[in-house]
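YM 10:42: aldehyde dehydrogenase (NAD(+)) sequence, as discussed on the call
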Amino acid sequence: MASTMNESIETRLFINGEWQNIRSGISITKEVVAQVQEADIQDVEDAVNAANAAFPAWRDLGTDKRGAYLRKLSQLILESNDELAKLETLSTGRLISQFFDASLAAELFAYFAGGGWTAQGTASLNTPDYLNLTVKQPYGVVALIIPWNFPLAMFAIEKANNSEFGLHAAVFTKDLDRAVRLAKALDAGIVGVNCTSPTNAKDTAFGGFKISGSGREGLLYSLDSFLETKSILIKTARL
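YM 10:58: structure's back
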């Protein structure tokens, strides 16, 4: 019996009794774009060790000079927008028309180029004979593993919260009271009312619950995630 395994497989869409090409003109070819190396624990340790060695000099540059590098990075990201969009499309299949990441990343780097000035501490004289200070210091070098997942369809609170993810949830209703009640009950870091992902505001916190991440990003929130608060107690003499 002749085998059909070697015959070409139809890859078009079967619509209305006919094989048809997709309207967008974009199809999956299974062509290998690139062979990407996968890092292991030792590779991560090598990167952390190199960053640790460079960290003191970077820390001691001061806010102005560090900001200059961040502004330069912002500029380079914008200049590379088309290349980054192509890479994103090749690696994820995302449409180039939906690529906004470069402009967003550039804007964030430009903002935080001057954000170091907001990392302010406090001082008090509330303890007799002491000048008490709190200062903000960077954590130092960290290895970041960033997962990306799309939000699950959520139709009811029980089903919505019965998930290990919790990045973005959505509520569609004309009843504002109902929207607030549902938003409070949903186990998600972001709840959109009559809108859904990737809707977000630049000055609100971006982040999730459960395995969708810890900490928060955003113009007013990101910096605190990279800082530790230290207390310094200075013994003073009385007049």
